[in-house]
């Protein structure tokens, strides 16, 4: 059996980021990175890159703090969304620069991770190669960095056996993007559906776009620059002053230290009026810029839920031409209906419409549990992974959940008034023409991810062995910053350099509180099952930095303008450039 000091599962942004930091700080330890794909990158792996794929973020906000994406090397310029091929190249160069490229083993899936008894713990991993050859690997420490977009959820359609044309998930668009189709159907309203629609329509291919009448509707899509002041969106959400307007359970005393202003904005009537006005300005600006009501077809793409409650389902129009022109000129036809069934080269909708179709691209979401089984049986509850909610005996006891809800509503009364749900809303699998062979789906009643600070299992066993951590189980616009700091946090946790000042009951309650908060804060996003936030990334980074005893207010010395720059200047990779060196110096 092979043995390693650390095994990282996943070679995407999160896996590479945490592996690099661990290797940098523990160069004498053995390291192995496992990934089921044939190349590194996760979302940006070669096999997932289709020609029009780009980052939502513009150049300058989507890079690791200690590895700038310089213009000379990568050929980018200001206000440019990063092409997928450049993103892959950047990650490959990052892995090469920090000597982890040769530590990656491709086309290898982890099927089972079994925890070992004893004070030091450790994991025996059962892996499968592309040829289905199984092997055992022992990992003294294990990091799961599979992220939230690795295992696609793919329903079965009634009649698909006679449809006679390709049906595939948006994850696999690369393999079908160049097929000579004439009338493709795109199913779903998420950002990946918008991307698939644009990939076809921008080449003059007429697209039928089906958005479920029984779903959450079209995703919020924002221009890159918003508000009457035309602020860069990715920077706007990382500006302290504006993060105060977002209800955030880990804000205030526990992280960013601005508890007084947060209490005013969220616990007083006048503060809530100001806060509601802020969100109204953001939403109305996006609605006005996109001019949804200017055409009967674009009106169908108008979001159904308030922007404040959407989390990362609030995305960015990163297309080189006007997306809505393709809708207005008839290249894209939008249908608000469910798919009833399929017949030969035909999609039948619940409103009676029949669509000629020679391909179906499904943007139907992702499985929300790691793509591996954890043993011994029942350990998923101890780890804090999503599991079936019935007869809950773990962290999510009824009294604990009620206590968490009471605290959330006391601190943020605004969240008591939840957005009005679609009156036709039901599970994707409740539609007459859809089913699945899988036991678990995104619609199975499950507990959410319940990890301490979204990283570590909050149980006595794992707080003792410190041999398991998760990276990238959060959704936000600040992926690279989060991964960079999570990497340092995990290293400190694994090496017993992260003092846990709270008692075990306090750690467990806080984990439930943060997990439960997502249900009320982002009901139109994914908050009920996983950490999903946009305006709350900087307070989250502060939370991790406070754990590490590192400086959170990083603008004073850099800008020389004191607290004014601290609260008005956006945070970006440049503000965390020397963070790892600061950590090393502190330890010395």
From TrEMBL:
The keyword Flavoprotein applies. Keywords: FAD, Flavoprotein, Oxidoreductase. SUPFAM superfamilies: FAD/NAD(P)-binding domain. InterPro entries: FAD/NAD-bd_sf, FMO-like. Pfam families: Pyr_redox_3. It comes from the Eukaryota. GO terms for molecular function: oxidoreductase activity. Transmembrane segments: none annotated. This is FAD/NAD(P)-binding domain-containing protein. The lineage of its organism: Eukaryota, Fungi, Dikarya, Ascomycota, Pezizomycotina.
